[in-house]
Amino acid sequence: MPKRTDIESILVIGAGPIIIGQACEFDYSGTQACRALKAEGYRIVLVNSNPATIMTDPEMADATYVEPITPEFVAKIIEKEKPDALLPTMGGQTGLNTALAVADLGVLDTHGVEMIGADRNAIRKAEDRELFRKAMENIGLECPRSLTVHSLEEARDALTQIGLPLIIRPSFTLGGTGSGVAYNREEFEHIVANGLDASPITEVLIEQSVLGWKEYEMEVVRDRNDNCIIVCSIENVDPMGVHTGDSITVAPALTLTDKEYQIMRNASIAVLREIGVETGGSNVQFAVDPATGKLVIIEMNPRVSRSSALASKATGFPIAKVAARLAVGYTLDELDNDITGVTPASFEPTIDYVVTKMPRFTFEKFPGAVPLLTTSMKSVGEAMSIGRSFTESLQKALRSMETGLTGLNEVTIPGAENAQAADTPAFRDAITAALAESSPERILVIAQALRAGFSTDEIQKPTGYDPWFIEQIRAIVDAENGVRESGLPTTRTALLGLKQMGFSDGRLSELAGIDEAEVAAARAELDVRPVFKRVDTCAAEFESRTPYMYSTYESESWLNPDASAEGESEAQPSDRTKVIVLGGGPNRIGQGIEFDYCCCHAAYALAEAGHETIMVNCNPETVSTDYDTSDRLYFEPLTVEDVLEIVRTEQSNGTLLGVIVQFGGQTPLKLAQGLGEAGIPILGTSPDAIDLAEDRKRFQQLLSRLELRQPANGLATSIEEAREIAEQIGYPVLIRPSYVLGGRAMEIVYDNTALERYMQVAVQVAGTSPVLIDAYLRDAIEVDVDALCDGEEVFVAGIMEHIEEAGVHSGDSACALPPHTLSEEIIDDIRQQTTALARELNVIGLMNVQFAVKDGDVYILEVNPRASRTVPFVAKATGRTIAKFAARIMAGDKLASLIGESDDQPVTQVAVKEAVFPFARFPGVDVVLGPEMRSTGEVMGIDTDFARAFAKSQLAGGVKLPESGKVFISVKDEDKLAMADPARKLIDLGYEIIATRGTSAFFRSQGIACSETNKVLEGSPHIVDSIKNGDISLVFNTTEGAQAISDSFSLRRAALTEHVPYYTTIAGALAAVQAMETLLTGSLEVTPLQTYSKSSS
Predict the structure, then answer these.
(1) How far apart are CA 330 and CA 193, in angstroms?
(2) Distance of CA 653 to the CA centre of its chain
């Protein structure tokens, strides 16, 4: 049937901030849904608290609410907008849970809003573990033996009935939150308690262990006429026990027989019918016993899932776009396949290549976290690669990680470092023990075990990897040995064979002991070059009209005798004027969705200017890798070798204006030198100017020329130099390697001992680059500035005042725009300094500057003449699409032609950006903030004043400030005076104050009533007891110095695990008190971004 005409407006609920388990794949799907439904003529109302995504750009919806995604706020939006329908399936678990909660409150019935895409019963049946188990029994599908429990007592009974080991899965959660595997009673009780806490309905499933079984996923789409298609089958390379988001996965499933696949296919469709998913995409997960072939169903998601984004990018089938249109009445046979243009969407995709997804971890950001993978997801991003074989696809995925890998690189296994002892039992035991650990490096450990002579059986038993995958890894290791022994092949056939297995030039150079440039030269001489194939959804049965491409190496035996290797390439570069945009690669802490936002805007802006846009990226979660974001898409690793092959292909026809490296974060910047040396034009700010800003000595010379101030600092390449500089500056000092992003290995050091430890351990990150040592400006206010420059004129787009003091990484600090405590004189000074820097660096495009303000003086901390992570926040807060302006400037436009008079007017609203952290997923990690970035995402609060905007930002980030109760305060000596007035305010608002001895004595001396409690080291009853007993509603704790931070760790961890809001900086505490006063004295209202946005006015 055609689309529905009885509905006119649709509310779409987004996923909120990027968190582990719910990353930017939901922004990709939500963006696709908004665009598809808007194109159908519906009025789109969107709620999403995330400013970093392109989904919350005012152009994506008719009314965009950057508000907290809570039932209360969504209810206010429904009351204001009166939508006809609500689409809950595009916002991950957040969207589903919020939609259910709003429905349960009766809001949908009151306002006549229909839930489309999935109804309440279907969502409950899929998400409620007990209802799901019964539904599967109805259709004859077996689940692992399980019992649903709602308390520890019930859980103990379940343990007795089923027996250990057990898997614990909470209901209505995402990314395995609160789940785990229990091997003993102590673990069991701990995981169950966490799971009951994590589930919004206090329910967990206690499930028979299927650890070591093979895991598969099916991406299924169904319409209201019961047409069902399998978009993609996905196989987890890691066995059950590792969360599917943390597992290496491949598509299509590679180790199923056709009969097994058909059984799984039929079961998936039966599941959708039984659960009642009438329209849209769903994800069904199965486990198969490798010994018997027995199949059990694990779970299904009645919504677009993390795997949906992967399946969409793997096949070219836009699941979210199709699901959104099915939700408004279309059927699959009525929708066209965008890629071919001649087949309907009911035509089941087929792929003639292998896709590998590789997860990206950042355990190094969380000292104290154990780097092991479990049923609770820990990866922060992923890369995807496409190849004609598993080995090619795997090696491309490994080099897409940006962790220094060039392929299956060697790893050091503790206890097995000495190759001479390879035949000893101790050596082999060490490798077996490493294989048994589900570490993020397990695939490299398997390769190392093969190098040590382990058999397939000896590897399969401790890892649970299918023997087929182990044999594929063995083929790579055998090929490596051939290059080690004989050097780089000198014949075209032999070298082509290695490239077909996915070997990079970098890896071959390591194995052959020669320079990478020599490998590239040998390839050129032997004419060994990749060809580009198209992702066409149909295994070449129909022509692809969409240039969505991947590289592979074609074997001569596949070609007709008269054809050249290039003859089989499907690239077909156009004769247009073109620009290549390099993306950011896999998401990780320090480089996230904000950079993808900038890349998308570059593509849109350059297309508007009449240029052909070409995107290169390897991240399947993002909008930039959607096939219709740019004119042409290459899904390739971001290495000099891979990018140069794309550039040369595109240069073979038309005119390449240049490559944009400044929008994708540190990833493409690292390629600038290699591309420049190859004679490839770089658009915008020159790589030399970017290097100047990173090179401390050159930057100092620039600042002295401009007579600008920076904190006392020095460069050290040895422990002796570092000690000398630190003593000269005076402790504490801020120390970090050069050329890193996200504050990697940055630390505040308080004494010589800590300095020496830092130089020995963290300096490994920097390699040969010197370490930077700065005076730590205590209690300074940090300021972020984003500006545009065309080489002459400068436009300061946004000045943000950080709420946390200097020393907390800018990505982890909350910040306000416009500044809320700085004087006009200081703001003017910051503008002038920014303008001078932009002109001196000859910036063409975007620039970010970080300042510190202390005692009325302005210090420059660092300058980045490129896109920064604050660009999307500034755009949403001011209504200025600065990334789009920057791309046009880089292509030759002048600032004056882009910036109107209204853009230069001060904004009247206040926006607050707040960071969101994954601490709860890493037991043993301290939550205290510092110079190394650890947040995974951000939210925004926007309102008429600072207190309201800050209150919204806290709610959006999941922090519910208490309306009454006891507030615990323990602050360092220099913060005590600053804490006095907020403490008085809290008492005036009806809160009680409880403090440790020193803070308590100070408060009483100031006439502030408070009760006293022990620190943990002073013995029970102490503050952690009070937190665990539910007596404390809010914690303010500031501390300094290694010992004091260590002593108060248990207090901050208890606040986190007991869901007590906490603030670890004085500025954060002061802002929280202001917000609490606002919440107690008035209500928060909702306003669409279009009301504030200048671009929409």
Answers:
(1) 45
(2) 36
Q: How many residues does the chain have?
A: 1097
pLDDT > 90 in the chain, percent: 63
Looking at the DSSP assignment, which residues form a beta bridge with residue 632?
614
State both tokens at 979: 């804490």
* The token pair that represents 116 in the structure block: 């489309």
pLDDT over 80 at 559, yes or no:
no
Q: Report pLDDT digits (tens) over 429-464.
A: 999 999 999 999 999 999 999 999 999 999 999 999
Question: What's the CA gap between 1084 and 292, in Å, rounded?
Answer: 59
Q: Are 502 and 407 in contact (CB under 8 A)?
A: yes
Lowest average pLDDT, out of 126-130, 273-277, 431-435, goes to 126-130
Residues 6+ away with beta carbon under 8 Å from 795: 787, 788, 789, 885, 895, 899, 903, 904
The rounded mean pLDDT for the chain is 90
Closest CA to 954 of 803, 762, 777, 787: 803
* DSSP type of residue 396: H
Neighbours of 828 (CB within 10 A): 10
Query: Rg of the chain's alpha carbons, rounded to an integer?
Result: 29
- The conformation of residue 311, written as its DSSP 8-state character, comes to H
Per the CB < 8 A criterion, the answer to whether 496 and 553 are in contact is yes
Task: Express each pLDDT in 78-100 by its tens digit.
Answer: 999 999 999 998 988 899 889 99
DSSP for residue 628:
T
Q: Which residues, in sequence order, are CB contacts of 155 under 8 Å at separation 6+?
A: 149, 188, 189, 192, 204, 206
**CA–CA gap between residue 113 and residue 831 (Å, rounded):** 48
Rounded to 10 deg, the angle between the 696-706 and 687-694 helix axes is 90
By CB atoms closer than 10 A (0-12, 13-18, 19+), residue 201 is middle
* DSSP secondary structure letter of residue 143: P
Residue 321: pLDDT over 80:
yes
Helix, strand or coil for residue 198?
A: helix
Residue 860, both tokens: 């420059």
User: What is the DSSP secondary structure assignment for residue 21, as one 8-state letter?
Assistant: T
Q: Give residue-wise pLDDT tens across range 507-539.
A: 999 999 999 999 999 999 999 999 999 998 776
Q: If DSSP codes are grouped into helix, strand and coil, which group holds residue 550?
A: strand
> Over the range 406-440, which residues count as b (16 or more CB within 10 Å of their CB) and which as e?
bbbbebebeebeeeeeeeeeebbebbbebbeebbb
The number of beta carbons lying within 10 Å of the beta carbon of residue 1005 is 10
Cα(238)–Cα(464) distance, integer angstroms = 7
Measured from the Cβ of residue 307, the count of other Cβ atoms closer than 10 Å reads 28
Nearest to 26 by CA among 238, 384, 301: 301
Sorting pLDDT into bands at 50, 70 and 90, what band is 694?
Answer: confident
Q: Which residues contact 33 (CB under 8 A, 6 or more apart)?
A: 12, 87, 90, 320, 321, 323, 324
Burial label, 1079 (beta-carbon count in 10 A; 0-12, 13-18, 19+): buried
Question: What is the residue type of 411?
Answer: V
Q: What is the rounded CA–CA span in Å between residue 622 and residue 92?
A: 15
Q: Alpha helices, DSSP H only, in 707-806?
A: 719-729, 752-761
Query: What's the CA gap between 426 and 360, in Å, rounded?
Result: 31
Place of tokens 């899965």: 169
DSSP 248: -
Would you tell me the crossing angle of helices 390-399 and 467-486 to the nearest 10 degrees?
70
Residue 353's contacts (CB-CB under 8 Å, 6 or more residues apart) are 386, 387, 388, 393, 533, 550, 552
Q: Tell me how far apart the alpha carbons of residues 346 and 331 are, in angstroms, rounded to a whole number.
A: 8
Give CA–CA dist 80/491, Å, rounded: 71
764 pLDDT band, cuts 50/70/90, is low
